[in-house]
Write a structure and sequence with these properties.
Radius of gyration: 30 Å
Structural class: mainly alpha
Order of helices and strands: HHHHHHHHHHHHHHHHH
Strand content: under 5%
Number of strands: 0
Length: 370
């Protein structure tokens, strides 16, 4: 490759990076690439053509719109009627090396200002699957959330709009760029929305099932309904009460900041007790993640309450299964080979101990300074 070609190809890659995939995908769509798959393939082939042709690269660098659109239309036509076997499948297709303005004859009015950037560091890499993932998300719009929410509802799983939006953000940042590797362009061309809906639904379903387990684990200790009048009440004797009050400040200080804040808000350690909804708002999240944060905080709290007499062996086991591992009461009971009612009572006992001690932190206990 000549130095002119290499330098111009670098400038084209930098221009792609500067203007963004959405700008170039919209341009490819106007030139006939009707689906996200074909838009990404066309843009990859176009970059390859710029690398092969100094004339085309210079016309792009000069932002010569007629030459750019002519080249994109040629590529769309070259792939018309053919399956897209690979997003890099410009191999085997005649690239438009003659399109654009001949090298050395670029109109001066279209020349970019300043020197052409050299490829040091190397030009931004073209990542077709990442580009396809971004285009799929944008093309799907709000329909993706509506479809997934409806499919979850048919399984008896309901997520509010804020939670589903949070899930989509997690999916886009953590899951989609891995899942897109399994997308087959030959089969998925024109069916991108259906593929994305199915993939996001699987992710949201896993989350919704985890959410249900988290709710049950949390409710078992702190918010659970039902009549427990047949169970003996948990009363902290003065010695244990004082022991927990003495240990708690140091334990709380060793927790992660978000865990400390969730506990202080929920148990009213710095003001009135907050509901889960209020904790979620204070943490800039939704109720599910607020509840999950509290569970993680309680698991960390239980793990650090290692002074003898604070939590007995049963309570430690149940706290680990419910708070740290996220099992519901029924699954924890199976693991422990105990009756669910027994595990439920131990969970309630843990909750009463924590609630009594943490809430007592808002008051001055006898012989204890806040």
């Amino acid at each position: 490759m000549s130095s002119l070609t290499a330098t111009s190809a670098c400038a084209v890659a930098c221009l792609f990076e500067e203007q963004g995939v959405f700008h170039w995908a919209a341009r490819a769509r106007r030139c006939g690439a009707s689906t996200p798959t074909r838009q990404v393939w066309t843009l990859g082939a176009f970059l390859a053509a710029c690398t092969a042709s100094p004339a085309l690269a210079l016309s792009v660098e000069a932002r010569h719109d007629d030459a750019i659109d002519a080249s994109l239309r040629d590529l769309v036509q070259a792939a018309s009627g053919r399956p897209i076997l690979s997003l890099d499948a410009h191999v085997g297709v005649n690239l438009p090396t003659g399109a654009g303005v001949p090298a050395g004859n670029v109109p001066s009015g279209h020349m970019p200002a300043g020197p052409t950037p050299a490829c040091t560091p190397p030009a931004p890499a073209w990542r077709p699957r990442e580009a396809l993932a971004e285009l799929m998300l944008v093309d799907s719009g709000t329909a993706l959330l509506a479809h997934v929410r409806a499919r979850l509802a048919t399984s008896g799983l309901r997520l509010d709009t804020l939670e589903l939006h949070d899930l989509l953000a997690m999916f886009a940042s953590r899951e989609l760029h891995l899942a897109i590797g399994s997308f087959d362009p030959a089969l998925g061309d024109g069916k991108e929305a259906a593929w994305l809906t199915t993939t996001f639904h699987r992710f949201a379903l896993r989350h919704a099932l985890t959410r249900r387990r988290v709710e049950r684990s949390f409710d078992a200790a702190f918010e659970g309904p039902g009549d427990r009048s047949s169970e003996p009440p948990v009363i902290l004797d003065e010695r244990l009460h004082e022991q927990m009050l003495r240990v708690l400040p140091a334990v709380l200080d060793r927790l992660r900041p978000e865990h400390q804040r969730a506990l202080r808000l929920y148990f009213g350690m710095e003001g009135p007790e907050q509901s889960l909804g209020e904790v979620a708002e204070a943490l800039s999240t939704n109720v599910y993640f607020a509840r999950l944060t509290l569970l993680q905080a309680l698991a960390a709290l239980a793990a650090r309450m290692d002074e003898p007499g604070l939590l007995d062996a049963d309570e430690r086991q149940v706290a680990d299964l419910l708070f740290a591992q996220g099992f519901d009461v029924a699954t924890a009971a199976q693991r422990l080979q105990q009756a669910p009612s027994r595990v439920q009572h131990v969970a309630a006992r843990i909750g009463q101990k924590f609630r009594g001690a943490l809430r007592a932190r808002t008051r001055t206990a006898p012989g204890h300074r806040r």
